[in-house]
TrEMBL record:
This is ABC transporter substrate-binding protein. It comes from Microvirga mediterraneensis. Keywords: Signal. GO terms for biological process: thiamine biosynthetic process. PANTHER family: 4-AMINO-5-HYDROXYMETHYL-2-METHYLPYRIMIDINE PHOSPHATE SYNTHASE THI11-RELATED, RIBOFLAVIN-BINDING PROTEIN RIBY.
Length: 325
C-alpha cells in the first residue's frame, strides 16, 4: 500500500514537473532598428498587454543602432530576431549574412530627402547641398540609389555622416540643408517648429524599397520555428491593437520609453504606418505577407543604383511560412 502510494505521488510530481516544462516561457531577445521611435509601438504594446506572455514568450526588447547593425547582430545570432529596414536586410543577405525576412509589417517605403525651404522640387535641386545621412541606417543604404537613379552622384552633394538621432537637431540649427530619412518622422516635427520644407520621396523618384519588417537568424529559424511563429502572432496582435487603440498605444509607448514628444506627433506616425501595411502586390493578403515581385523590384533597384552585388532569387530573402494564418 505504501509502495503504491509512493509511486502515485512520484507519478503526480512527474506529471506536474512535465507540465511546467511544457508551459515554461521561451526567452527571446529582439534587436530593434534604432533607439525608441513610434514605429516600434506594436512590439511594446504586445509586451505590455501580455500578448507575448500569452504566447509563451519571455521577451526582451533591445534598442538598436541602425538597421545595418541590426542585420549583423541577428546574423551573428547575438539576438535571433530583429526589427529592421527590409532594403537594408536585402543588402546584408546578398552579402552573405545568414538572415531571412519573416514579416513585412510596414511595406511602403517612406525614405525621403527632407530639405529646409521650398526650393527643392526635383532631385537635381540638391546639388551642392549639405545632406545628413546615417551610414548604418536604412537611409544610408538607399540614398546612393536615389542619387544614381536621377543622374547624380554622392560627389554632387556635401554628404555628412551622422547618427540618426543627430539629424533633426542638425537641420533645425542650420548645420544641414537636407536630411535623408523617413518623411513621416521628420516632416511633422519640422513643420511643428514652423519650418518650411521640401520633401522628395525616393519611391516617387525611381527607387522601389520596402520599409520595416521582422528578420530572423537562419539557424534559429531551423531550430525554433514554433517560437518565431508565436512571436509573429503576438506581434501582429500588438499591431492590430495599436492601430485600433492609437491613443492608448501612444500612452504605453510614452510610459515605457520616457519619450517627451507630443502625442499628436506619435499619432501621425501610427497613421502613416496604418496606410503602409500593403503594397499593390499584397493587397488582400494577411498583414505581414510579402510578395516576390516587390522584393525583386527592390533588389533590382539596389543592384543597379545601391551597390548590391550577388543579387539572388527573391525566395532567398524572405519567407511567409512563419506568419500566422
Amino acid at each position: 500500500m505504501k509502495i503504491t502510494s509512493r509511486m502515485a505521488l512520484i507519478a503526480t510530481v512527474a506529471s506536474v514537473l512535465g507540465t511546467g516544462a511544457v508551459q515554461a516561457a521561451d526567452k527571446l531577445s529582439i534587436r530593434l532598428d534604432w533607439s525608441w521611435w513610434p514605429g516600434q509601438t506594436p512590439m511594446l504594446v504586445a509586451k505590455e498587454k501580455g500578448f507575448y506572455k500569452d504566447a509563451g514568450i519571455d521577451i526582451e526588447i533591445q534598442q538598436g543602432q541602425g538597421s545595418k547593425t541590426t542585420t549583423l547582430v541577428v546574423g551573428e545570432n547575438r539576438e535571433p530576431i530583429g526589427h529592421a529596414s527590409l532594403s537594408t536586410a536585402a543588402q546584408s543577405i546578398s552579402a552573405g549574412v545568414p538572415i531571412t525576412a519573416v514579416a513585412g509589417f510596414w511595406q511602403k517605403g517612406p525614405i525621403s530627402l527632407i530639405c529646409s525651404g521650398e526650393d527643392v522640387k526635383k532631385p537635381t535641386d540638391v546639388k551642392g547641398k549639405r545632406v545628413g545621412s546615417t551610414p548604418t541606417g536604412s537611409d544610408g543604404q538607399v540614398l546612393p540609389a536615389f542619387l544614381r537613379a536621377n543622374g547624380l552622384d554622392v560627389k554632387d552633394i556635401s554628404l555628412v555622416n551622422m547618427p540618426g538621432d543627430a539629424k533633426f537637431a542638425a537641420i533645425t540649427s542650420g548645420q544641414l540643408d537636407c536630411i535623408s530619412g523617413d518623411d513621416y518622422y521628420y516632416g511633422p516635427q519640422l513643420i511643428a517648429q514652423g519650418k518650411k520644407i521640401s520633401i522628395l520621396r525616393y519611391a516617387d523618384w525611381g527607387v522601389t524599397n520596402l520599409s520595416f519588417g521582422i528578420i530572423a537568424n537562419n539557424s534559429f529559424l531551423k531550430e525554433k520555428p514554433d517560437v518565431v511563429r508565436r512571436f509573429l502572432e503576438a506581434t501582429r496582435k500588438g499591431l492590430d491593437y495599436t492601430l485600433a487603440n492609437k491613443d492608448e498605444a501612444i500612452q504605453i509607448f510614452l510610459k515605457v520609453t520616457g519619450n517627451t514628444q507630443p502625442a499628436n506627433f506619435h499619432k501621425s506616425v501610427l497613421e502613416a504606418y496604418e496606410s503602409s501595411l500593403h503594397t499593390g502586390a499584397t493587397q488582400g493578403k494577411p498583414v505581414g505577407w510579402m510578395a516576390s515581385e516587390d522584393w525583386d523590384a527592390m533588389n533590382k533597384t539596389l543592384e543597379q543604383y545601391g551597390g548590391m552585388t550577388s543579387r539572388k532569387d527573391p525566395s532567398t530573402y524572405f519567407s511567409n511560412d512563419f506568419l500566422p494564418k
